[in-house]
């Protein structure tokens, strides 16, 4: 049966899991959830998933939060920055709450969906798209839905090929010649394939709803999609298919991966092609004055965002909104997050400087073979009041 694309788009609800604490990002997530961490100068990590939704024609999005949600809630607001504030569209922040049976915190990805069944039922979708809020990528979810429908699938899992030597770090999908998933291995010691789960799923809502309700009326074991729900579907003989994705995708859950993705983001030839007007990346942007580059400044192969004041040298780096770099300072292969102030004669290399941090005059932030991190509002040394 042919289904009109507009019908498909309105029939699928996106649920973004954005409650991760992001402990591997250390100081950067001490005060904010991982999806709210700044990226690329003017974005936050969750912007990429939200932008994918609106570019894919998905009009209704639920954002499931938990850890330190205030910055994320403020950033998303009513969804207007992504066009999710129309009559027939919207974004809803979904936070944990105490229920009659005493449940409060989300204990896993599937449990987070279970806790929000009332919201999903209110939206009454035919399909539920489950997404992560902490990946950097561009993906057309409508194309994934088309394959899901064509395969008469009960569940479709997006997969990406990874080097076989790295496959043991991921949930690996083993498939037959028709891309039907026959086996799921969670971080296998000896992987049989290199098809890694991206943590992106399309479920037929009626079936998933029944699975979750049955589980939580008995033993409540369906906590996680990878560990519990997918194996349950396979054991039950459900139609579970893999959707192959071959574009740029980065899980920025560690300091090294966040720094690597940031360095890849610099330059006109980055794989994300951020200047593609047919698939724009949207964000809530602060209103800042134009950046100002003094006669003492030297800038090469770098991204400089609104509100920046630069009197030093910047090379292969990202200066986010309202960053100051004073005279004599040198920034190289680093990410300076919004509102940070870099004093005079400072050397920063291979580092990530958190939001609103203050780096005093003459400081040196560089450690060979390691990415240095300065946390949110952290103060290093004593800063001069003069330029």
UniProtKB/TrEMBL annotation:
Its EC number is 2.7.7.27. CDD domains: ADP_Glucose_PP, LbH_G1P_AT_C. It catalyses: alpha-D-glucose 1-phosphate + ATP + H(+) = ADP-alpha-D-glucose + diphosphate. Keywords: ATP-binding, Carbohydrate metabolism, Glycogen biosynthesis, Glycogen metabolism, Nucleotide-binding, Nucleotidyltransferase, Transferase. Residues 14-264 form the Nucleotidyl transferase domain. GO terms for molecular function: ATP binding; glucose-1-phosphate adenylyltransferase activity. Pfam families: Hexapep_GlmU (PF24894), NTP_transferase (PF00483). Alpha-D-glucose 1-phosphate binds at residues 171, 186-187, 197. Residues 296-369 form the Glucose-1-phosphate adenylyltransferase/Bifunctional protein GlmU-like C-terminal hexapeptide domain. It is an enzyme of class 2 (transferase). Involved in the biosynthesis of ADP-glucose, a building block required for the elongation reactions to produce glycogen. Catalyzes the reaction between ATP and alpha-D-glucose 1-phosphate (G1P) to produce pyrophosphate and ADP-Glc. NCBIfam families: glgC, PRK05293.1. Homotetramer. This is Glucose-1-phosphate adenylyltransferase.
